[in-house]
Every structure is written in C-alpha cells, then in structure tokens.
Amino acid sequence: MPASARHTEAQKILQIYGRDDVRSVMELIERQFMVLHHRSQVLLGLSGIVITTTGFSGRLIAGTNALAQGLIISGVALVMAAATVVCYGVLHLRWLTQHPGGQIEQWLDHTLAYRDRKTRFYRVAIVLTVLGLGLYVASIFVMLLRPNDFPGIISTR
C-alpha cells in the first residue's frame, strides 16, 4: 500500500477512535496482526500436511516417471519456500510498543507500514503454496494417468 493510502487509513482510524483513545487503536492493530498470524498458521499447517503426505506416498509418486519426480520435488520445494517466507516474514515479532513514533500519528503510520510488509510476505507465501500444491497435485495426476509405470507392479496389458 502506498504511503499516502496508509496515511489516509491512519487518519480514518484516528477519526473513528479519536487521538486520545490509544488503547482502542492498539487493540484494532493487534486484532489485524492476529488475523494475519492465524492465517499464517493455516499455511504452516498445510505445509506440514504436504510434507507428511510426501513421507508416506512421495516415493510411490516419484517412482512413476521423471515427470512425476520433477513435479513432486518442485511442489514440495515451493511449499517449503512458502513456509520459510511465513516464518521469516510474517511470524517474526516486533511488539507494538517497540514501534517508533512520539505521537500517535507517527506511531500508527509506522505500525501500518509494518503490518503491510507482513501482509506482502503472507501474499507471497500464498502464491508459493498454491503453485506448490498445483505441482504436487499434477504429480498425482501423472501417477494416476500412468498406473502401469510403478516399479514392481505387473502390467495387465
């Protein structure tokens, strides 16, 4: 979000809550961070499911052919990259009381910029997760379309 839009948002927040109600302003910002963190936890949970599932069925999928191998490896790598982005960019903490700004306006502008940076990291993680899941599912499609390519399975043709 551009600085001008962020400044407009800050002014709107202060108009709604008032410049003297710092506690309510902080609670609003805290709720926004909680939403961002909860959604990040969902992405991390999904990453864990992908990794666990790969542990059980990854070898079978990768054993189909080189295409399935490339797809599953790429998919898992993107999901892991998304988890890394979430851990580094979103779940990294800086307490609201540590943000600079002598006046509420300066503090709010800085804090909204911090929130927006975390939101950008979250959006990158979503894109990586969706791409990774897409590649992962594509590897399953390859496996299902080529059922006779599995080592140790006798072809009925």
Largest sheet: none
From the alpha carbons, calculate the radius of gyration and give it in angstroms.
22 Å
The strand count comes to 0
- The helix fraction, in percent, is over 70%
Topology as a string of helices (H) and strands (E): HHHH
Task: Provide key terms for this protein.
4 helices; 157 residues; rod-shaped
What would you note in describing this structure?
The protein starts with a helix and ends in a 12-residue tail after the last helix. 23% of the residues are buried. The chain is rod-shaped. 78% of the residues lie in helices and 0% in strands. It has 157 residues and is mainly α. The chain has helices spanning 3-17, 22-62, 66-90, 104-145. Helix 1 crosses helix 4, helix 2 packs antiparallel against helix 3 and helix 3 runs antiparallel to helix 4. It has one domain (23-149). It contains four helices and no strands.
List the helices and strands and how they pair.
Elements: H1 3-17, H2 22-62, H3 66-90, H4 104-145
Brief sketch in words of this structure:
The chain is mostly helical and 157 residues long. It has helices at residues 3-17, 22-62, 66-90, 104-145.
